[in-house]
C-alpha cells in the first residue's frame, strides 16, 4: 500500500477567486495526474486560504472529488484530504464531473495557450504551502502537509458552467487569473500531526 511520501506528475488548471470581504481567498483546481503511487487519476478541488488551524492560518482543501477509489482512500488516510469518488467525462475543451450517485458536480470549459514559464513553490514561505486538514474517518487531531511543486504555467481561460456539487455556486463569480499548468511535479510528504 502507498504511504507517503507521494510524487505525482501531470497537468491541470488553477483559477483564483478574489474573496468577498471577510472571507478567504479561493482556488478552483482541475488536475490530471498521469503518474502517482496509485496510478493515473483526475481531480477537481476547491481550496481556501487562509483558514484557521492550530498552527495558525493555512490553506485547506474544503471540497474535492477524484476519479479512483484508491486516491480517495489514501488521500483521506495519509493527509486528511476529504476526497469523494466521482466520474470525469472529458470532451474537447470541456469536462463534466458527476458524483457516485450520478449527480452533477461540475461542468467546466477551458482553453490553454500562450507562452510557458517555469514556476516552483520553493519561493513561497512554508506556511503558504502547508495544508492544514482536520483528521478524518474517526481519527483525531490535525494533519499538516508542506507541499513542493514545480512545473510550467501559461495563460488559460476557465468557464464555469456548473459547480453546485463542489462548493458554493461559482457560475456568477468572477475569477481572477487562470493558469494552465504543464509538466507538473507535486510532492506530498509525510504530514506532521497535531
DSSP helix count? 1
Q: What is the CATH homology-level superfamily?
A: Acetoacetate decarboxylase-like
- Unreliable spans are none
And the CATH topology?
Acetoacetate decarboxylase-like
Number of strands: 13
What does this structure look like?
A hairpin with a 7-residue loop joins strand 9 and strand 10. This protein has a single domain, classed as Acetoacetate decarboxylase-like (Beta Barrel). Helix content is 6%, strand content 58%. With 194 residues, the protein is mainly beta. The strands form 2 sheets. A 9-stranded mixed β-barrel has the order 1-2-3-4-5-6-7-11-12. The model has no long low-confidence stretch (mean pLDDT 93).
Topology at a glance:
Elements: E1 6-17, E2 25-35, E3 41-51, E4 58-66, H1 69-79, E5 83-91, E6 94-99, E7 104-112, E8 117-120, E9 130-134, E10 142-146, E11 148-162, E12 175-188, E13 192-193
Parallel strand pairs: 4-5
Antiparallel strand pairs: 1-2, 1-12, 2-3, 3-4, 5-6, 6-7, 7-11, 8-11, 9-10, 10-13, 11-12
